[in-house]
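TA notes, week 10

Several of you asked for a full example with nothing omitted. So below is the full record: structure tokens for the whole chain, then the designed sequence directly under it. When grading your own attempts, check the secondary structure regions first.
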């Protein structure tokens, strides 16, 4: 599998107030396995729509979207749900943790949709918690954690099912500068270990921490460059 994600001619139109809103207007976009990409653009540029399509939360009006080599453009709701729970690790700005559950239980949530929690899978979740610096917090609940610690739980949860890629939606939007650096450090380490990461952000300094920066405007890709070299992606 050369690409974790491929979008070909992706369009997403909405009917709003009798008018057609072209949220995405013919996007060609591919992310090779192991790449770290940031997506930026002003409000209304199509970032949220692109995120929803990549996260299998929506379907394109036309065009094709391939995730892990599978065409998901016309997949059923049940199949999209399966793909979300197995192939895409999603990290949200607001963490989306269940407050009544412990750190370990929150990390284990994806497993309940994929055959349950065996002893081996539970050990794997503990290892993931340790990997993101939460070894001493397994029995804590989200209200007992800082924002950075909650985001670490979300990162560990996103890795549980060994997804094809991690989709991070404004992952540092609610964090202070020091904690942002910690979270971006975790992302960089994961990427160096071979994880594919697509991060949507409105923060310029955060966007430039990825290896590749894609800018959207008016539903189209305005630019696509390697950050380290500042040259267009071929």
């Amino acid at each position: 599998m050369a690409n974790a994600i491929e979008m070909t001619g992706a369009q997403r139109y909405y009917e709003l107030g009798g008018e057609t809103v072209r949220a995405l207007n013919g996007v060609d976009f591919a992310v090779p396995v192991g790449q770290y990409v940031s997506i930026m653009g002003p409000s209304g540029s199509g970032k949220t729509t692109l995120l929803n399509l990549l996260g299998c939360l929506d379907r394109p009006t036309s065009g094709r979207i391939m995730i892990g080599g599978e065409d998901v453009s016309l997949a059923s709701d049940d199949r999209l749900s399966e793909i979300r729970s197995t192939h895409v690790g999603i990290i949200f700005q607001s963490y989306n943790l269940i407050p009544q559950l412990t750190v370990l239980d929150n990390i284990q949530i994806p497993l309940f949709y994929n055959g349950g929690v065996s002893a081996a899978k539970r050990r794997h979740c503990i290892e993931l918690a340790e990997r993101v610096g939460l070894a001493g917090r397994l029995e804590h609940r989200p209200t007992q954690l800082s924002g950075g610690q909650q985001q670490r739980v979300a990162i560990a949860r996103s890795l549980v099912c060994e997804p094809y890629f991690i989709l991070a939606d404004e992952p540092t939007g609610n964090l202070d500068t020091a904690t942002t650096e910690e979270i971006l450090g975790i992302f960089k380490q994961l990427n160096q270990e071979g994880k594919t990461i697509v991060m949507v952000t409105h923060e310029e300094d955060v966007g430039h921490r990825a290896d590749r920066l894609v800018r959207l405007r008016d539903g189209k890709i305005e630019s696509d460059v390697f950050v380290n070299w500042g040259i267009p992606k071929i």
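DSSP finds seven helices and eleven strands in the chain. Use that as a sanity check on your answer.
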